[in-house]
Design brief:
Mean pLDDT: 88
Number of helices: 28
Helix content: 40-55%
Number of domains: 3
Radius of gyration: 28 Å
Strand content: 15-25%
Distance between the termini: 44 Å
Structural class: alpha/beta
Low-confidence stretches: 234-239
């Protein structure tokens, strides 16, 4: 995104879908910002908005449970692209923020004539109790213009307000547009009488046994563009692919192929029948990626007898219908919640961040079957478990993989903290944990999947209480930009982990034969109790100078 795209004339076009939902222009701008810049799920973004008359100068509210902060939002749209932001609007916003500084002030808003949406958020998110608990109150000011020198000077001294001006918004925006498949034309020989079925005015279905020699000639197989909207890509050497390979070897079986293969589903913008050929324009395969990939890899073995049932559906740009067909028609391998989220905007954005960052050859795999040779592949499934244990402090749920992309999906990925940099840092910490786990005496316990996430949660709790470490957790950029700094960070973590593992061994030995790690690691109470013991022991060791905090270890390196 470039700054001119936030000029009023362009911005109004961007905001049209949000205005169409009944939102005023400023609320539409905030809605767009929360989804595309602040990384909230569409439902959470909408729930945060309270922009209407008598909103006490607050357009939106978001509770960041991880950082224990209440974030207040205000948006300003200028129609004059040459206009700048001065300090007046920022000072007014600061006045609005002070209305939430104490629980008593928050309660007073409920007794005032403030609008109902703001009151609902105050009650629904229990803001009064959170302020009383110690949650900090901060503000994000969002605008489509640049600050002048007065605004910049004000912000240098006022840390309660974070400014998202046009330049910062452009820097943090990631294009979420998905590939649309293959933008070409292609023709299939269909014989004399393909089945044609008109589904009211929604779609037209053409179905016939297509020659495999033609199917493997489809453009976009090798680079994956043909399967751009598929919920998963080729899954490698699965039972389906093995069966295909076996059939190809026995040419006498080629003519039977349509009898036991489920077929291929191809969606297109336009399809037409003429002279025994069905021609398609702008197309994508939404079911059959594995089959076509396997056939393409062994195309030299394909004979003219081998045909595959082909379903061509003209959807004429109906994206909702295309999505429905995609989800329902995929039934050769079990569809997982992860597959259904593979084209979701949060996953696409996160993958783009990994690609842009280019750190240590990391790549985020969001679709099963992706090919990333020579890359350091981190699956979004693993990323979700890291975030669940480290940020949300729920290591006991990390074995329930279906929840990552179902019940817990928004809580895990729909947060501003769920960034490529932080996930990479967590993965680096996990690498140290897995190395140090060799020192766990109870080997079955050490090799149990949930153990590493339990230890990650313990480490996260210790680091969050450390001033220096917490700064790196909030923004790992200095570590990712400096190899020496990253090595120092990992060295300090390894030092802390060494003591934790020793204490963990003691607790396991003390429990004796009654130690049931499988049950304990899946129990919130038992897991939390053991973590509390380890953290308390670490704190006592620090007080007795038998252990060092992260800050102390980091400071030693500064003076070495």
């Amino acid at each position: 995104m470039q700054p001119p795209e936030l000029d009023y004339a362009h911005l109004t076009v961007t905001l049209k879908p949000y205005v169409a939902k009944g939102l005023p222009e400023s609320a539409a701008f905030l809605n767009w910002f929360l989804e595309h810049i602040y990384r909230l799920d569409d439902v959470d973004a909408r729930d945060a908005i309270c922009d209407s008359s008598n909103d006490k100068g607050i357009d939106g509210v978001y509770v960041d449970e991880y950082a224990e902060e209440i974030i207040l939002f205000q948006t300003k749209i200028r129609q004059n692209s040459a206009a700048t932001l001065g300090d007046t609007a920022l000072k007014e916003f600061l006045g609005s923020i002070t209305q939430f500084e104490t629980a008593e002030k928050v309660d007073a808003i409920l007794q005032s004539a403030a609008n109902a949406e703001l009151k609902k958020i105050i009650v629904g998110k229990n803001l009064s109790a959170l302020v009383r608990k110690g949650y900090a109150v901060k503000g994000n000011f969002i605008c489509n213009h640049d600050p002048d020198h007065n605004a910049r000077e004000f912000l240098q001294n006022e840390k309660r307000i974070d400014l998202f001006d046009r330049r910062r918004i452009c820097d943090e925006y990631i294009d979420l547009s998905l590939p649309d498949g293959v933008k070409q034309s292609f023709s299939f020989s269909c014989g004399d009488a393909p089945l044609i079925h008109q589904v009211s005015d929604l779609a037209i279905l053409y179905m016939f046994p297509a020659a495999a020699t033609e199917l493997v000639a489809l453009p976009g197989i090798s680079d994956g563009n043909l399967f751009a909207q598929n919920v998963r890509l080729s899954l490698g050497n699965t039972e389906v692919n093995k069966a295909i390979a076996k059939t190809l070897q026995d040419k006498s079986q080629h003519r039977k192929f349509p009898l036991f293969h489920n077929g291929v589903t191809l969606l297109c913008d336009k399809a037409s029948l003429s002279d025994g050929k069905v021609s398609v324009e702008n197309f994508v395969v939404v079911n059959g990626a594995q089959s076509l990939t396997a056939l393409h890899q062994s195309k030299s073995q394909i004979t003219s007898d081998l045909r595959i049932l082909l379903r061509i559906i003209q959807v004429s740009g109906n994206q909702e219908l295309a999505r429905q067909i995609t989800l329902i028609s995929n039934n050769q391998n079990a569809i997982k919640p992860r597959d259904l989220r593979s084209n979701h905007q949060l996953q696409i954005r996160l993958k783009s961040e990994f690609d842009t960052l280019k750190y240590d050859n990391y790549v985020l795999e969001i679709k099963r079957g992706e090919q990333n040779p020579g890359k350091r592949v981190l699956s979004n499934e693993e990323a979700g478990r890291l975030l669940l244990a480290f940020d949300l402090a729920e290591p006991w749920s990390c074995h329930q993989l279906y929840k990552l992309f179902d019940d817990l999906y928004t809580r895990i990925f729909g947060r501003p903290e769920a960034t490529a940099r932080r996930i990479i840092l967590m993965d680096q910490i996990m690498g140290i944990i897995q190395h140090e786990m060799n020192n766990i005496e109870n080997k079955p316990f050490a090799s149990y999947t949930l153990t590493r996430f339990f230890i990650l949660d313990v480490v996260a709790q210790i680091l969050r209480r450390d001033k220096v470490a917490s700064e790196f957790l909030a923004d790992p950029s200095p570590l990712l930009a400096d190899t020496t700094a990253m090595d120092r960070f990992k060295g300090a973590i390894s030092n802390i982990l060494s003591g934790i593992i020793q204490d963990l061994n003691y607790e396991v030995r003390s429990a004796g034969e009654m130690f049931d790690y499988k049950s304990m690691l899946k129990s919130q109470k038992e897991s939390r109790d053991l973590a509390s013991k380890l953290i308390a022991t670490f704190s006592r060791d620090v007080a007795r100078k038998k252990a060092e905090t992260f800050s102390q270890l980091w400071s030693q390196d500064d003076h070495s």
